[in-house]
Amino acid sequence: MIYIIDILGTISFAISGVLVALSKRMDPFGVLIIASVTAIGGGTLRDVLVGNTPVTWMHNMTYVYVILATTIFSVVLRHKIDYLRTSLFLFDTIGIGLYTLVGIQVGMSHGLHPIICIALGTMTACFGGVIRDILCNEIPVIFRDEIYATACILGGISYFVLRKLPIEDDYVFMFSGLVVILIRLLAVRFKIKLPNLYKSEIVN
Amino acid sequence: MIYIIDILGTISFAISGVLVALSKRMDPFGVLIIASVTAIGGGTLRDVLVGNTPVTWMHNMTYVYVILATTIFSVVLRHKIDYLRTSLFLFDTIGIGLYTLVGIQVGMSHGLHPIICIALGTMTACFGGVIRDILCNEIPVIFRDEIYATACILGGISYFVLRKLPIEDDYVFMFSGLVVILIRLLAVRFKIKLPNLYKSEIVN
Amino acid sequence: MIYIIDILGTISFAISGVLVALSKRMDPFGVLIIASVTAIGGGTLRDVLVGNTPVTWMHNMTYVYVILATTIFSVVLRHKIDYLRTSLFLFDTIGIGLYTLVGIQVGMSHGLHPIICIALGTMTACFGGVIRDILCNEIPVIFRDEIYATACILGGISYFVLRKLPIEDDYVFMFSGLVVILIRLLAVRFKIKLPNLYKSEIVN
């Protein structure tokens, strides 16, 4: 289950990387690098921080092949994907829902505290996109779109709450992932933002 | 001793992170992320480079609670803290003094060469602020304020010199930390800068 | 053999770091930091990702001394080096050729798949320059100059192809390194670029 989730997240994030890289007019290798970094950046940071080395994608060639295939597929179909530009947003959102759960699982398998697990899940979900945006010279989406990391954190909390209830593990997974995705979709749809704490100052 | 120093440094850096994040009008989670990254970024890099994983703050929830409490406290009292805007500078300075020593200790406990220990101390002290500034889209303070890393390096050197003398360990600690703090305070007060080596070229 | 290559790459990259830092009017410690990061940044990322910690330069003081000596030497002779500004390009190019091979070797010694080894080689070669450029507030050369990473990847592929032939290891090394260097030199000389895939959109 967790493995399928991981692959689906990889595909979602690789597509989102390809779309951003294409919009920046990168050449084929640039597109591949951005797709890879977006797809495996968050998991790589997570693995490095918990000491899970060589990091996951070095052992398991599936990730490499999935990213390569997704990149080629997205580049070939780029004009079709472009018409569905909102799909970038959707793929990104599905990606963070799935990756949050993967990160939490890794944290739990290392016996870490739930707060740390949620931090790892949020990192796994958000960090690939942060690197993608830094490399593409955009302000990271995590800072532009305020309910991004918040959705991951709330999904993570709901995971640990639901686990205490008599619900099957697979449903707990699915539901927590949906929490992340729905919170982000609703936040964007209804323009919900967290309040600024500091409105008075003029930023130089 | 080293543990108390570490907690004090964490508080100092978390406050400095909160102040910068608030001045950038971030929402509550953004403020928490910047406070955390500032407080634990340098130590995390140090731990990853020496292979001390899972990194310190994943084992020891004290850091997490200290950062959470400091963040809430600073946000609630933000209007008071704001009047003391120079306090940002002061907290940052105390932070680098304390963290330099923590980093040196970790290097020594891994049996590394004094030069490497000083590099680790400087990294521990400076890297959290570098990430804070990159994420807040400012030029890292380490490059704006030239006696920043230099103060850490000189404090580190004085630590290894003082250790050879017949002085108690606690005093060696305190004195080396003060060296870092004083050098930075004096440099800023008297506008001391290191010389540029290359004055003739116009930077585009 | 691999060790000599590594030291030569360290010197080449340290010089390239010094030249960029000087052109940004950095003070002596800033120059040293940029030289170090350029020279060991790629190898550090590689070591962290494969779990080779404490990272190489912490064990082996040779790197530290070589970087220190190269930095002092380059700073003293900066006016001479400046006349040869194209040398920056040349040193950078030799550096990526040598480091690609070092990265591939580390990957192979961990029993990783050739694709992963090539990725590690490319990372070792390119990442130091990426950090150098980010810290100096320039667009990373890897994105400005499109045949940069591509040269490393092609050199890596030629290494794995040549290994299958009945050629001595040292020649395989030399030849693959030359492939990287020649591809980049020719690409820059004849302004060869990879095609953009997405020319129609206006980037905001």
UniProtKB/TrEMBL annotation, chains A, B, C:
One of its GO terms (cellular component) is plasma membrane. Residues 4-78, 90-163 form the Glycine transporter domain. It comes from the Bacteria. The chain crosses the membrane at residues 6-22, 29-45, 57-77, 89-106, 112-135, 147-165, 171-190. Keywords: Cell membrane, Membrane, Transmembrane, Transmembrane helix. It holds the Pfam family Gly_transporter. It is a multi-pass membrane protein. It comes from Formosa agariphila (strain DSM 15362 / KCTC 12365 / LMG 23005 / KMM 3901 / M-2Alg 35-1). Belongs to the UPF0126 family. This is AdS protein. PANTHER family: INNER MEMBRANE PROTEIN (PTHR30506), UPF0126 INNER MEMBRANE PROTEIN YADS-RELATED (PTHR30506:SF3). It is found in: Cell membrane.
